[in-house]
Predict the 3D structure of the following.
Amino acid sequence: MTGLRAIVLGSAAGGGVPQWNCRCRVCALAWRGTGLVRPRSQSSLAVTADGDSWLLLNASPDLRQQIWSTPALHPRDGLRHSPISAVLVTNGDVDHVTGLLTLRERQPFDLYGTEVTLASLADNKVFSVVADDLVPRRPVVFGRRFEPVPGLSAEIFPVPGKLPLWREDEALGLGEEGENTVGVEIRAAGRRLVYVPGCARVTPDLAARITGADALLFDGTLYSDDEMIREGLGTKTGARMGHVSMSGPSGSAAALARVPVGRRIYVHINNTNPVLIEGSPERRAIEAEGWEIAHDGLEVTP
Ligand code: MLT
Ligand code: MN
Ligand code: ZN
């Protein structure tokens, strides 16, 4: 099969659903197996143009299980093989890079990211198990398209974000646009998909980038900015975490309401987010605004 095809490998934010140590409202429903909350693994998307060779957008700590659940990513030829021939990381967050460690068995693929993100991985010696003689690090820059897998072209663009949690001892860069957090535009067979799993704020540039895309997969971390605080789970607002919330006058649903897009899909959904509860008022409200809530295994063929 040819043409742009994407599979959501993991639709949850860091921690997944349910999170290993969490009994928040959503996680409790998931643990109880009520069927009201689907379990979800951590943030990653696979894309292809030719159906043979796949690009991973982010490599989550759940990657091994995600490959198992996704026949298109199973090894097919000879003794050692993988359809995964490239990985692009959009930031250095734990939920987006630690899956690289799963890909360490001397299998060649290309690793793409900004200079800054690749440098933070290089600073961390554990990633040297993904040997660079077989996995060349390929820095990418804004405004220059590249072809990570045959027939599929990609371009990164800056998105307001912040440094990864594990680098917060440095200047946080909250809300800054630069190489720390990027979005990705994918083009193949005349179709266009935009992937933005982390975003602190919808800027005019970002809205322009999204306009007219056949599919948008966007940061759905929180429903409301003070969700973690209200649930008694922490002190951080969404704004402090570098994630714009879905709802409210400055939320992503409102900010993108008048931006034409083929399909609008939330990904990177945190386990506190009430839209994860099937039929909840928040789920119904966000669907009424035209959004889909991704689940693991969701296929998007825009
Ligand atoms: C985030 O999306 O804010 C990060 O994944 C948080 C983390 O690293 O745990
Ligand atoms: Mn995350
Ligand atoms: Zn939870």
